[in-house]
Amino acid sequence: METAHPYVPATLELPGYVAPEHSALTLCLAMGAAVSMVAGAAYAVLRQRVRGSELAAGVWFAVSGSMHSTFELYYVVYARTLAGRRDMVSSLWKEYAKSDSRYVAGAATVRAQEAATVAIVGPLCWLALWGMWTRRGWARDLGQLAASVLHIQGVLLYYGAELVGEAGCRPEAQYFYGYFVAANAAWLVVPLGLAASSMARMAAQMKHSPGRA
């Protein structure tokens, strides 16, 4: 017997699927509260040693690193059994999956992408943050540039999946424009600025390094 679910396509097989016990509003508020707590804590700590635009970048990397190392790590670990899980984090993923049913289905492509994000991009975010805190410019710029480029690449590939019809998104505007587009756009727009900042700083350092004409 097929299990009824809200994902696209309707024929998607999700054995043992359990619907989230919390409303979409509750889940979105919970996610917003968690992000706000991380951002607030990062700001409170970093402002002791970091100022200006670098403080904002530090908060960004703290939030991104935390998401990669916790929320997305959860997905990598439980992707194959996500549909039948009942906890709050699985409910958050199930709600988000209304914009991309590959997540609730545990598709190999998204498992691989999320695993790479957890294993590579997450540590790069923490490297950038450590470089800012310790004032080690090489660590800050290496982590910032590499993490930003990988964020940009990941979002472009993710958007491309929808263009070629791989991502199953419900037709309602809140799922496509709210979850799929807007929820991921920050990891395209912000990293563009951070990558440009790192490259400009590195170019200036090379220009003034000893031995150059």
UniProtKB/TrEMBL annotation:
It is found in: Membrane. One of its GO terms (biological process) is sterol biosynthetic process. It comes from the Eukaryota. Its main location: membrane. GO terms for molecular function: C-8 sterol isomerase activity; cholestenol delta-isomerase activity; steroid Delta-isomerase activity. Pfam families: EBP (PF05241). Keywords: Isomerase, Lipid biosynthesis, Lipid metabolism, Membrane, Steroid biosynthesis, Steroid metabolism, Sterol biosynthesis, Sterol metabolism, Transmembrane, Transmembrane helix. One of its GO terms (cellular component) is membrane. The chain crosses the membrane at residues 24-46, 58-78, 145-161, 176-197. The keyword Transmembrane applies. InterPro entries: EBP, EXPERA. Residues 53-195 form the EXPERA domain. It is a multi-pass membrane protein. Belongs to the EBP family. This is EXPERA domain-containing protein. It comes from Coemansia brasiliensis. The lineage of its organism: Eukaryota, Fungi, Fungi incertae sedis, Zoopagomycota, Kickxellomycotina.
